[in-house]
Amino acid sequence: MPNYFTNKQNIREIGVFVIIGVLNTAIDFTVLNLLIIFFGISSPVIYFLFKTFSFLAAVMNSYVMNKRYTFSHRGENLKTFPKFISVTALNFFINVGISSLVFATLSASFTFNPFLVANASAVLGISFGMILNFLSYKFIVFKKD
């Protein structure tokens, strides 16, 4: 492990993953906030649905960008996509589950602005899933043959 961060390829992958992650996060927040702005947020169930849609929008971008640019994987989609879906399902429960739990807890306990609570909750959910995503994509989904 000590040599991991001195390897130029690994450093490049982490850097590109972070850049794509920022883009995916922007997609996630944009979709989430547009849904909140247009439809309002009246309950934790509505938040869960909105967060699910925003997560899926970011995930679609993530597959294409990480496959092509982060890991430069040229393998067949028939091999990588099922693995990606499995990893994404786990990350869905982490990301959307944590953010929905935080939203439900904060919105029931305090009188914060729901828009602020929704975004703070999303940050926590996204943060927990990032490390899992990188390691899973590198060593499972887009593993070099």
TrEMBL record:
Record keywords, A-Z: Membrane, Transmembrane, Transmembrane helix
Which residue windows are transmembrane per the record?
Answer: 14-39, 45-64, 84-110, 116-135
Biological processes, Gene Ontology terms: polysaccharide biosynthetic process
Instruction: Give the matching Pfam families.
Output: GtrA_DPMS_TM
One GO cellular component term noted in the UniProt record for this chain: plasma membrane
Listed name of the protein: GtrA/DPMS transmembrane domain-containing protein
Domain GtrA/DPMS transmembrane: where? 17-142
Predominant location: membrane
Membrane association type? Multi-pass membrane protein
